[in-house]
Amino acid sequence: MPSRDHLHRAPARATPAAVPRTAERPSQETLPPLPVPPHAPLIQEVLLFLDFARVEKGLAANSMESYRRDLTEFSAFLHRLGKSPAAVDRDDLRAFLKELYDRGLGARSVARHLVSVRNLFRFLVREGRLAVDPSAEIEGPKLDQSLPWYLSPEEVDQLLAQPDVSTPLGLRDKAMLELLYATGMRVSELVHVGVADIDKELGIIRCLGKGSKERLIPVGKSALRAVQAYLLAGRAVLAGKRNPPWLFLNRRGGALSRVGFWKILKAYGRRAGLANGLTPHLVRHSFAVHLLERGADLRSIQLMLGHSDLSTTQIYTHVLKERLKEVYQSHHPRA
To answer: Cα angle at 37 between 109 and 59, to 5 degrees?
Structure first.
């Protein structure tokens, strides 16, 4: 992982048996009622599908909310048309996508809506509730493959130098930023890390990712030192008399939220002069690109990022190619 101690080499893999798991995870909140009439077309089918996605597929809360939002819009669209699920055809689906475009949604958002609708209809056909999937032959929007922006190592150093480590909150923030960059975790994964999830001796962390899938990620010495300093002089102050299982706590001793971390990161980004577009995912991109630049193989990066498909990770090879082009254009005498 790209800790500032070991940026020059790819990390070794660790064995899953190393870390005992004792920290409990916060349970997923129940999704609120769908904001459409209960008799709207497809609404009961949507509820069945959401239950299937939550229980059988084990989707994360963010994915569930995306499905819920997209399918609520589709159900409301059918309600306006006065169509039942069995009567939906390809023209109706094309009209739905056109309506999304007319509302100003971009191609990626429209494509996500189509994926949600497709998964719903596939579920209904598989369950025997529909005979035909009307979405089977609908082509999705063509998406440009935009290359992810990432921080330079110098910009990462500027960001990591911002927290005031003379305070408990500063120690916590330093540990969070170091761990985020050292592991490439998603923000939802970072805030759910438990104290028992880190093995300081082996230098690995157990992470609960999308679909409740666990993975082990190596952690560099710089991040481990920051976590150890926080555990020694910061966390107990925030926890008070409580004994919560989570590693990173808010001022009241509870688990830090995703939104809370976003606000913290934005504030440090402004201090470091990196305010424009700084997000947890940008730090994740930087983790991957810096590893690739220093010779890590794509498969190892895929495992550390928790990507289920290698093609998702391959975007970083395009970033590296563009970077090599820039170097050539800048430095070759006959470029």
So the answer is: 45
Burial of 254 by CB count in 10 Å (0-12 exposed, 13-18 middle, 19+ buried)? middle
Could you give the residue numbers annotated as active site? 186, 210, 281, 284, 307, 316
Domains 43-126 and 147-331 are alike in CATH topology: no
147-331: in CATH 1.10.443.10: yes
Q: What is the pLDDT along the chain (335 residues), one digit of tens a residue?
A: 454 443 333 333 333 333 333 333 433 344 444 554 555 567 788 888 888 888 877 777 778 888 999 999 999 899 888 888 889 999 999 999 999 989 988 888 888 999 999 999 999 999 999 999 999 888 877 655 555 677 888 999 999 999 999 999 999 999 999 999 999 888 889 999 999 999 988 898 998 877 677 888 889 999 999 999 999 999 999 999 888 999 999 999 999 998 999 999 999 999 998 866 788 888 888 888 888 777 777 777 777 877 766 665 566 665 555 555 555 466 545 54
> Would you call 19 helix, strand, or coil by DSSP?
coil
Domain 43-126 has CATH 1.10.150.130: yes
**What's the whole-model pTM score?**
0.57
The residue ranges of every structural domain in the chain are 43-126, 147-331
Alpha-carbon distance of 49 to 96, in angstroms, equals 20
